[in-house]
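look at this record:
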Amino acid sequence: MWPALDDTLRQVEDVVRTIDPPRIPGHLLHPYVNAICALGTYYPTRHRRASKPFSRLIRKAKKGDRESLDTLCLLIADLLASSIRALLPIDLILHVPTDPRRLKERGFSIPEALATAVSGRVEVPVSDCLVLTRPVRSLRRLAPEERAKELTDAFALSNPALIEKKRILLVDDVLAYGTTTGQIARLLRVNGAQGVSVAVIAYAART
């Protein structure tokens, strides 16, 4: 085994032992979403549990650390794959598109990398037909109605025919408010998707 991979696998084992199970509120299960699957709970910076390894790993990946992203890809591929198989059958995997500004800062798209990792493990194709139509502000400090307004018509499909009658798995990094996944799930269902399930690394706990 290559030393770098060996170190990554050890880091995965260390992180797995500290993951808190997610407690996803029922209101986040959008009417257009069949199911939500998450690895664990993410604690934001100001949370009293913010120092837990799983949360630190996610923050490092969000800041552009490629090694942390590789570890998360191993986590989601190994641990989430079995849960995903328990969801409704999947025909196609999509990932939430990353804002170009964040993509430039990080040098990679976390949802795209995770979707690719999951695709390889469950042997279901991944597509990049879900696109952003314009830049999107951070939703962190916005009220619910402002979040919904910010995301209105922010997503589109470059090839709508690709999802028709398909059972879709939508992959994102962290589920916080459910606004993004809800808006995208609605877009997919309106354009003919048979069903939409969501897979994320973590659910973000409230501070």
Notes: DSSP finds seven helices and seven strands in the chain. The beta strands are 35-42, 92-95, 126-127, 130-132, 155-157, 167-175, 195-204.
